[in-house]
């Protein structure tokens, strides 16, 4: 099956990373995958499938595919104009909540196109706006990269607690990430928490300054470097106003780091308040500071979050996401066009089957 994925850019960010992982998963399961991108757009991730650069994302530059998989309202329009019957909308976030052209973004969800979203919250948002429900596939993390360090990595000998935070440049269109809420929460925490702490700030665009708060800036270049930062942290904080899923809190859980997060919507697919995370109110810096204070002051709560978070992350793996997203795309495509379905489906885990056969042969020869 030929799958075409039009993208506006592949800059550093959760959504772009998910698109690349989806392309690689489809290719891993035997499909012919082509990503189409404007020729001057950024490509920050290694792309293993075919990558075609075009003058612009217009309908005349979208090649034919048995499936066309746009994920954003701006890439949906040319894909839908070119191949409406082949389109499957892969929704990573409900754009009418934040983009300037809300009516146009909402129009893209009203078209008669199957939708796959990444959380129940996101699927419900789409249903409330359009009366149409789609399929849900949760994201996952790679346990070979995101796992606890034993013993826990301590970057400072003076006992300072490390609070990790992922920021986006607040002077751009990323106010919805809640950076200003985090700064206010940190200043409130400093007034009430008497222990030593430092903020490890991750921001790919700029070095951000927090006046009066000890901090260091980081620009990790790989998932392995991100995992190292999670492993060093005593607490991970997320302050988004809304997210389709929000992978960083799950990555932190997988690394054995307690999580304080706002109720940004999609996190409810894996976060439970006072079970595996502290869930604060969005845009409420006092609520965020209260969560940070409780985790830093109470080792029992922190330990409970770590243990339950590890269990949560063990269920939501990248391998599970890959299989689920491929099977959902296949089910829609095969239902629309039965001729696409292979007469003899390939085994899901062919390498492991081959190893078992080799093992049996070795056993017989040894006997």
List the helices and strands and how they pair.
Layout: E1 2-6, H1 14-28, E2 32-38, E3 50-54, E4 67-68, H2 73-82, E5 89-91, H3 102-109, E6 115-117, H4 120-130, E7 135-136, E8 161-166, H5 179-192, E9 197-202, E10 215-218, H6 223-232, E11 235-238, H7 247-254, E12 259-262, E13 278-280, H8 285-297, H9 299-315, H10 318-336, H11 350-366
Parallel strand pairs: 1-2, 1-4, 2-3, 5-6, 6-7, 8-9, 8-11, 9-10, 11-12, 12-13
Count of helical stretches: 11
Shape assignment: elongated
The radius of gyration is 22 Å
Tell me the structural class: alpha/beta
Q: If you average the pLDDT, what whole number results? A: 92
Measured by DSSP, the beta-strand proportion falls in: 5-15%
> Low-confidence segments, ≥5 residues, pLDDT <50?
347-367
Note the gap between the termini.
Answer: 44 Å
N-to-C order of helices and strands: EHEEEHEHEHEEHEEHEHEEHHHH
Main-sheet strand order equals: 10-9-8-11-12-13
Q: Could you give the count of β-strands? A: 13
Q: What is the makeup of the main sheet?
A: 6 strands, parallel
